[in-house]
């Protein structure tokens, strides 16, 4: 999705999405990461490389995300990275489940009440089912990364 296809979204939301797209936060990969995942969205060609450093208390200390693709996928990844820092893996999982639910209109609690109002900007893409995959790519990548991390710990 090129930036000019965002015209159906609210102006303010568009602005925030484009800002994250043009200046992605935490975009230096973590070399000694112990939480890693790679995501690809074949519908749009979006790619996400996710790395993070988790401490012994399961708390996410550093995040590094690199990617390419549409504005929705990349801004969602950038916002996710900012939200993840300082959270435990359990918090991160809760956050991703809740975000998925809001994108599928099945959430009971609003993003604002869940302390995730930063993600409101992505709600406009619900009108475009194919774009929902873009918005969720970083999050499914995170989920895979956490699953691998936990399997390794229990293995
Ligand atoms: Zn996309």
Question: Can you walk through the features of this model?
Answer:
The chain is an alpha+beta fold and 155 residues long. The chain has 4 helices and 3 strands. Helix 3 (89-103) runs antiparallel to helix 4 (129-154). The termini are far apart.
Topology, element by element:
Layout (H helix, E strand, L loop, with lengths): L10 H12 L12 E7 L4 E9 L5 E9 L2 H14 L4 H15 L25 H26 L1
Antiparallel strand pairs: 1-2, 2-3
Helix pairs in contact: 1-2, 2-4, 3-4
The structure holds zinc ion.
| Ends apart, CA distance between termini | 40 Å
Separate helix tally: 4
Spatial order of the strands in the main sheet?
1-2-3
* Distinct ligands, ions and cofactors found in the model: zinc ion
In helices, the fraction of residues equals 40-55%
| Overall form | globular
H and E string = HEEEHHH
**Percentage of residues in DSSP E strands:** 15-25%
What is the alpha-carbon Rg in Å? 15 Å
In brief:
Helix 3 runs antiparallel to helix 4 (129-154).
List keywords for this structure.
alpha+beta; about 160 residues; binds zinc ion; 4 helices; 3 strands
């Amino acid at each position: 999705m090129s930036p000019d296809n965002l015209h159906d979204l609210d102006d303010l939301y568009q602005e925030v999405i484009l800002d994250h797209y043009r200046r992605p936060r935490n975009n230096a990969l973590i070399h000694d990461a112990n939480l890693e995942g790679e995501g690809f969205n074949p519908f749009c060609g979006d790619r996400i490389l996710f790395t993070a450093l988790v401490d012994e208390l399961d708390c996410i200390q550093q995040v590094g995300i690199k990617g390419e693709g549409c504005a929705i996928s990349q801004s969602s990844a950038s916002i996710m990275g900012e939200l993840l820092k300082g959270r435990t893996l359990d918090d991160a999982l809760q956050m991703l489940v809740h975000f998925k639910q809001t994108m599928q209109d099945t959430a009971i609690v609003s993003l604002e009440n869940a302390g995730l109002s930063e993600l409101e900007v992505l709600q406009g893409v619900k009108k475009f089912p194919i774009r929902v995959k873009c918005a969720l790519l970083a999050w499914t990548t995170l989920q895979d990364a956490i699953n691998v991390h936990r399997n390794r710990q229990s293995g």
